[in-house]
Design brief:
Two copies of one chain form a homodimer. By secondary structure, chain A is mainly α. Chain A has nine helices and no strands. Chain A is 77% helix and 0% strand. In chain A, helix 1 crosses helix 2. Chain A binds a DNA duplex through helix 1 and helix 3.
DNA sequence: GCCGAACTTGACCGTACGGTCAAGTTCGCG
DNA sequence: CGCGAACTTGACCGTACGGTCAAGTTCGGC
């Protein structure tokens, strides 16, 4: 789609489509949700959809990219001005968990997007940025002797994994308090099972 | 489907359908893979599919359930005769990682199945069994004072999360050595980042 | 008040989907 | 051999999908 000129009215309509589609995709899945479902749900004609998006796929990728950008911004804001690299990791994790709590639907979309090659590329790109951010802090912490010297990328992936599963189970299946979940994620990431070997 | 009587030939055909469908579902996704794709790929008529399965959905759920059972058996075999609960956790995790390495396609199917309500029920059931197994060992370890006293379910979920993400990234995107990945997963699970606080 | 760009409508198109079924073939067994 | 159950075929069905488009409406700027 060659970016259209949008009036305020158009921008609002576009945002409305994105919001409603996100909701439906998260609730029913990407494939089971048809373009007809989306426009009918909003009570508009089908042409409206194709005025703002060139395809269902394009809309989905747009949702993913916007969400990834938003998540990263949130994490960066959370660690602004903090020098201690270990603390930066912790604050980044907390911010990520809280973002997931507020955007449960987007988290579900992320999980689906990873499973289909069409969207996996976009997901990997965004994910590797977040992992890269974490790796930077972890490297710094290791250099400063604050953390034992282990593969920082593996550590970052571990953090990602704990966050994914805990947010899924605790937010999606139960309705746990976000702060409590953030504590659980941070605890596990910092100390794991706490086994001394 | 009211379980049909199968001759050896029939059992083989059924297994062939399951194997090929698993491959295609994992490669292209569940929805993008049509029943026609599956039967065409095997060079058989469409009726063959519906002789063995009452629907595409039923086949998929069957694949999931069989896989979950197989994974659990593998883990149970791995910890057979081991008394130390911490060691049981570690061996279970290693077995899980190695199973994922050998069944990358099934792992991908698991990830998709979690994202669609139709299959999420079946997935949660199987997953909660595995988590329950781990929780038992963790509780025992805590009682014995081998691990600090923390919510065992959260710990089990943490393990699950680390396993999921590391197997995805290291097996799917790169072709890492399974044993090495198992080490990374176990390390992270046992000690996390290794931060002393 | 008018013009063009922004926006909206909904009938329509080709296709491909999941699933059915009447008919035919293979095969083990008595 | 022969018969019934197991298995296979592929044309066919209704539907619903993603996407198009000619036509009409709204609206801001001049």
């Amino acid at each position: 789609m060659t970016a259209r000129k949008l009036t305020p009215r158009g921008r609002e309509r576009r945002a409305q489509l994105i919001a409603y589609a996100t909701e439906r995709f998260a609730a029913d899945g990407y494939h089971p949700t048809s373009v007809a479902d989306i426009v009918d749900g909003l009570g508009v004609g089908k042409g409206v959809f194709y005025w703002y998006f060139s395809s269902k796929e394009e809309l989905f990728i747009e949702i993913l990219r916007t969400a990834q950008r938003d998540l990263r911004r949130r994490q960066q804001r959370a660690i602004e001005g903090v020098e201690d690299p270990v603390r930066r990791v912790e604050l980044g994790v907390r911010a990520g968990v809280l973002w997931m709590a507020e955007h449960n639907d987007l988290r579900r979309l992320f999980e689906f997007a990873r499973t289909e090659e069409t969207f996996a590329r976009a997901m990997r790109a965004g994910q590797s940025v977040l992992v890269g951010d974490a790796v930077d802090h972890l490297k710094a912490a290791i250099v400063e002797g604050r953390l034992p010297d282990r593969d920082p990328e593996a550590l970052a992936l571990g953090i990602l994994g704990v966050t994914n599963v805990m947010t899924t189970v605790y937010f999606d299946e139960r309705r746990e308090d976000p702060e409590h979940v953030a504590d659980l994620v941070v605890d596990f990431c910092m100390e794991g099972l706490g086994a001394r070997r």
